[in-house]
Description:
541 residues
Amino acid sequence: MTTPPRDAHDRDRPRRPRPAGAGRSSYRAWTTRTTGVAATVALIAATLVLPTAAAAAANGNAATAASAAEAADEFPAPPLNWTACPFPGTPEGLQCVSVQVPVDYARPRGAKTTVTVNRLRATGAHPVGSLFFDPGGPGGSGTELVYAESLGAGLFSATTREHFDLIGLDPRGVGLSSPVRCDPELLNRQVSLFPTDEAGFQRLVERNGELGRSCRRLTGPLLDHLDTVSAARDLEVLRRALGQGALNYLGLSYGSQLGATYAELFPARIRTLALDGALDHSLATTTLFKDEAQAYEDSFRRFADRCAQDTSCALHGTDVGQLFDDLVAAADRAPIPAPACVPSGTCRPSVTGEDLRLNLQGMLLFPARQGELALALQQARNGDASAFSPPLATGPSDGEVNGSAIAIECLDWPTPIRSLADLQRLQRLGRTVAPRLGGASQSWTILTGCIGWPAPVTNPPRPAAVRHAPPILITNATHDPSTAYPWAVHLAHELPSSVLVTREGDGHTSYLARGAARTRDAIDSYLLTGRTPPPGTVYDD
Length: 541
């Protein structure tokens, strides 16, 4: 689940990879994961895992895929009218187009919604075709990232730029597509995601319900149809509208879930499908939470160890783990000021211990930026926690803080939490697998953010059923703080034609990470030729 850089020249800051709350509101983009603990954890998890209907999945998924393909063919590919994109200083070579798709594919002649992409033409004279790009999230805007590339960000390799027209995808409800709209006052209302009593639990449930109802009122029927299956069907409409043959696709983080869903529905319409930072939608939500909480804690521990060894780290000579514990304890007693937020009013003026635990995750996504994390912790120790302050929504569909992520997540992932006791059992699981961070993670924001959400789950987790797909490439780092490595291993088993390339290293996804040269080259080579590296390939990037 990845998102685009804020700065067009900043290739290490995709906006979707940050967990909801990582330097932003609890209702914005995400990315985090890992696995396994002892019998105690298994026992706790077993009491909470929801059934995934595995027994009926194989036949049911195959029938769903067949009917989806037929429905997509029945819906005519709309003509494309490319125009200038509505970004400041858009270069002449960047164009945008919007297409009308059904809000509900079960009623293709009913209400429509708009899905928007942009296109940056290949630099070479003989392109292979178009490459659809989704940076993750959910809630990440592909059009923003391709716009950044058009300004010279250098996010994509020269080889990919030469051979492909880049197509930045804004899935339904996101970015330039018809957006999810919610009451900004409710988006900004601060409630604890770790309530300790019944009153706090009820405040959380009430805020979620009020927020969801405001999103339904302002967004309309689309709110019930933001699931990933619907987004994959949109992708097929766009592929057919472009008229360039089989799909080429690069999906990061949540974009890997979208890509895998497309493979279920339309396996015969794929040329290349690269899934970088694997999100496995066959997992129960509690397993997702457990794995991500472990992966996040592991990444923070590795960061602290590097600071202990690296004399250039601003916190060298400091017990980083103890420093963080002390900051959280202090912020729990009295929020730490965030003075940089006061002049603009676009982020909270103070930071709680909960903010620190949630928002640290986004700062671990890219190892090249962890020097900034050390400085941010040092500043927080000195009384300025601005780097950890969640931003505030300034309107119903604010580009930074909006309801798109939680609206999509609550259709794809059920929450087992129905009471304070349920929440407390999951908190104990979080503290068991991640004693320092206590389970704070993007998955926790799903578990707690979907309690009381008014739109029902329409695309629950289930085993994948992919048949007759061409070779699919999955890449994942062993120490990804967001999409846990075991998810990639499991997803590779779920997709029979896939090959998993392992990056022995840190950070979320590989395509946008500095230093992941061989892994990135493997992705580029696959996109160009359709050939994967040998099974079992491991790169020490």
